[in-house]
Amino acid sequence: MNVLARRDVQIAIFVVVGVIGLIWVLRPDPRSPEERIRAAIEAMVEGAENHDLDPFRDYLSEQLKDQSGLGKQDVLNRLRVLFLRHPSIHLQILSLEVSGSSNQVKNVFLELLMSSTSFPQDKGNYDIVFRLEDDTWRVFSLDWGSGYGQESLR
After folding, report:
1. 133, 126, 149, 135: which is closest to 61 by C-alpha?
2. Which site among 2, 4, 36, 47 is 20 to 30 Å from 106 CA-CA?
3. Is residue 75 within 8 Å of 145, Cβ to Cβ?
4. Phi and psi based region of residue 125 (left: phi greater than 0; alpha: psi -120 to 50; beta: remaining)
5. What is the per-residue pLDDT for 28?
6. Count of H helices and E strands in the chain?
7. What is the Cα gyration radius of the chain?
8. 125 in Cβ contact with 143 (< 8 Å)
9. What angle (nearest 5°) sits at the alpha carbon of residue 23, between those of residues 57 and 55?
């Protein structure tokens, strides 16, 4: 096999591997909407415990509104204050129910046990609407209910 033929084979292999890689990266997430929403909530819980806003930036919609009309940046600012007030945050998901038949919107009821110590101090209920945006389930609407984040920041 001459040099030009080998080069053609190498280019062909490179192109095939590149196409397979691109297909792999762009493939749809095989998990159900419920699994993806649960993963988003778990990431935000872990983020709160680690005082990390990144999961919230990722999973809060730019069009987010809470029951008071606060948007994404306002919610992020409330979280910053909460992180400053509580050097230690412990959260435990007690209940997480996903409902709705739409492929684009899901309703979530979340019940959290919360504490700034290792002993539970408070329980919060959250009504959340997730919307599918750019293949990511994001919080579109949030009712803090009796949630700790709402009461502690008034």
Report:
1. 133
2. 47
3. no
4. beta
5. 55
6. 5, 5
7. 21
8. no
9. 10
Q: What is the pLDDT of residue 121?
A: 79
DSSP state, residue 29 = P
| pLDDT value at residue 73 | 96
Q: What is the pLDDT of residue 130?
A: 97
In the chain the first and final C-alpha atoms are separated, in Å, by 77
Q: Name the strand (E) or helix (H) holding 138.
A: strand 136-143
How would you list the strands of the sheet with 122-133, edge to edge? 60-66, 136-143, 122-133, 105-115, 90-99
- Specify which residues 122 forms β-bridges with: 114
Q: Name the stretches of the chain with pLDDT < 70.
A: 1-10, 12, 14-29, 146-154
Distance CA 93, CA 108 (A): 13
Tell me the pTM: 0.75
